[in-house]
């Protein structure tokens, strides 16, 4: 009797065990297996994919990259462009050009809108001139003009020829005074905005900029063969910094020697 009870108990344990195996095995295959594959595999891959996308793009957009929103006129105005009325003279026009290019960069204004947005800041006689110009060549042609074309046109209208000639002469003779590369670069950039006939292309601007550098860095800048003006400016600044650091080091060494060997 005792043996029968034990045998029945063993069989019951085995049945439960098999049921448990079914649950853990089949259900495990269906749940933990496939579910595990779905969770651990795909989710793991998804996490890796997300990490890769985050590494590459900063955010996960579900496989789609967002389209950048174009600059609107309100975006442009938020950057506070200057107005131009036509009576500010050469300096005022130069400042207007400089500010406008800064606003274009900050607002990410595309080239196709630059003339349209910029001319909305014209006032008084300048606005009258622009409206007349639009009527002459047509609205579509006027707004199809490139920013460089508008700068050249406004320079011809608002800068007397004799003033431009003076600035062209200054640009031709402009050189670095002492070691003040910053002042040279600033004045050079102001002059090339208006002296478009003298330096019409980027290559011309690079050549003229290098021509005004001191001999001890000029050769190195030429050897670097910069294709853009900004590249030439960056290289010149790096070389000038090294040059000034060398001066400072030699000056400190001479001072140390003098202090360690004082005259009796």
UniProtKB/TrEMBL annotation:
GO terms for molecular function: RNA-directed DNA polymerase activity. Residues 116-214 form the Retrotransposon gag domain. Residues 15-58 are annotated as: Disordered. Residues 18-47 have a biased composition (Gly residues). InterPro entries: Retrotrans_gag_dom. Keywords: Nucleotidyltransferase, RNA-directed DNA polymerase, Transferase. This is Reverse transcriptase domain-containing protein. It comes from Tanacetum coccineum.
């Amino acid at each position: 009797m005792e043996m029968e009870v034990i045998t029945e108990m063993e069989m019951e344990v085995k049945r439960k065990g098999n049921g448990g195996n079914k649950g853990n095995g089949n259900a495990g295959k269906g749940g933990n297996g496939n579910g595990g594959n779905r969770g651990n595999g795909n989710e793991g891959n998804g996490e890796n994919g997300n990490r890769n996308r985050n590494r590459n793009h900063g955010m996960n957009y579900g496989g789609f990259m967002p389209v950048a929103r174009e600059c609107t006129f309100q975006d442009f105005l938020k950057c506070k462009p200057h107005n131009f009325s036509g009576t500010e003279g050469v300096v005022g026009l130069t400042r207007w050009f400089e500010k406008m290019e800064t606003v274009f960069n900050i607002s990410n204004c595309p080239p196709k809108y630059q003339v349209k947005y910029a001319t909305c800041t014209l006032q008084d006689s300048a606005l009258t001139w622009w409206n007349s110009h639009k009527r002459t060549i047509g609205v579509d042609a006027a707004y199809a003009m490139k920013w460089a074309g508008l700068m050249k046109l406004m320079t011809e209208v608002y800068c007397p020829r004799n003033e431009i000639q003076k600035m062209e002469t200054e640009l031709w003779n402009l050189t670095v005074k002492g070691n003040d590369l910053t002042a040279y670069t600033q004045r050079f950039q102001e002059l090339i905005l208006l002296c478009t006939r003298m330096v019409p292309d980027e290559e011309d601007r690079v050549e003229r900029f290098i021509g005004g550098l001191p001999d001890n860095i000029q050769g190195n800048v030429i050897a670097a063969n910069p294709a853009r003006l900004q590249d030439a400016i960056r290289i010149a600044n790096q070389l000038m910094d090294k040059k000034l650091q060398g001066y400072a080091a030699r000056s400190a060494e001479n001072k140390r020697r003098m202090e360690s060997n004082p005259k009796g």
